[in-house]
Amino acid sequence: MKTEKELLEEIKKEEQKLAAIKQRIASKKSQISAAKRKADSHQKIVLGGAVLSVLGRSYQPGDEDRLIAFLISQENRGSYFSNAMNFNLIESKEEPDVDSSDRIY
């Protein structure tokens, strides 16, 4: 039979193991969050590059407000933007017929 001191030492060791496991879990959660942020940033860069390549000029202050207003108006008039963006995902697996040689991204 173990003494009280031995049992307390075992508890202390188990608590240390638990703390190490919690730290590994937190580290893995942090890695997942970082990967999600990286993917989100990449998507924004790609879409921004696509918009600028169609616009044909560099970014000017206020462009995001004008773009958002335009996209909202397209949605209000008949969901034109979301329909266009989802067309190939729903209707076909083919790539759109767009010349990508002039894209800046």
End-to-end Cα distance, whole Å, is 71 Å
Structural class by secondary-structure content: mainly alpha
Largest sheet: none
Order of helices and strands: HHH
State which percent range the strand residues make up: under 5%
Kindly give the count of domains: 2
Shape: rod-shaped
Q: If you compute it from the alpha carbons, what radius of gyration comes out, rounded to the nearest whole angstrom?
A: 27 Å
Q: If you average the pLDDT, what whole number results?
A: 86
What are the SSEs and their pairings?
Layout: H1 4-55, H2 63-78, H3 80-90
Question: How do you describe this structure in short?
Answer:
The protein is mainly α. Helix content is 75%, strand content 0%. The longest helix has 52 residues, at 4-55.
Structural notes for this entry:
This protein has 105 residues and is mostly helical. It folds into two domains: 57 residues; 38 residues, no CATH class. Helices cover 75% and strands 0% of the residues. The chain contains three helices and no strands. The chain is rod-shaped and about 80 Å long. The N and C termini lie far apart (71 Å). The mean pLDDT is 86.
